[in-house]
Design brief:
Blueprint lengths: L1 E6 L2 E3 L5 E9 L6 E7 L6 E6 L5 E3 L7 E6 L4 E6 L8 E8 L3 E3 L3 E5 L2
Parallel strand pairs: 2-11
Antiparallel strand pairs: 1-3, 3-8, 4-5, 4-9, 5-6, 7-8, 9-10, 9-11
Length: 114
């Protein structure tokens, strides 16, 4: 079993920054991909960013150049640094562990508003 706990969400003004953290526990293997997804009100959950165990990354076009995903395998942590935030980034952000099974955290709310 794998448990994921996100933190770091909140209310921020347009143009501001936030750093999300995801603490993973349980049967974690650093070889597996971890990532961030988000779901805005009335919309389907969408891909934001992923990172492999070796550190290779991939981003949604909408966040390229503004968001940075990173991980600390020794601490079983994944991070999402979000800069130049826009109102369209408002959503619940979910951490994902893509092992033999898919695991999700409970989500953390990010609201970008003036």
């Amino acid at each position: 079993q794998v448990q994921l706990v996100e933190s770091g969400g909140g209310l921020v003004q347009p143009g501001g920054s936030l750093r999300l953290s995801c603490a993973a526990s349980g049967s974690i293997l650093s070889m597996y991909v971890m990532g961030w997804y988000r779901q805005a009100p009335g919309k389907q959950r969408e891909f934001v960013a992923v990172i492999s165990g070796e550190g290779s990354t991939n981003y949604a076009e909408s966040v390229k150049g503004r968001f940075t995903i990173s991980r600390d395998n020794a601490k079983n942590m994944v991070y999402l640094q979000m800069n130049s935030l826009k109102p369209d980034d408002t959503a619940v952000y979910y951490c994902n562990y893509r092992g033999p099974n898919d695991y999700w955290g409970q989500g953390t709310q990010v609201t970008v508003s003036s």
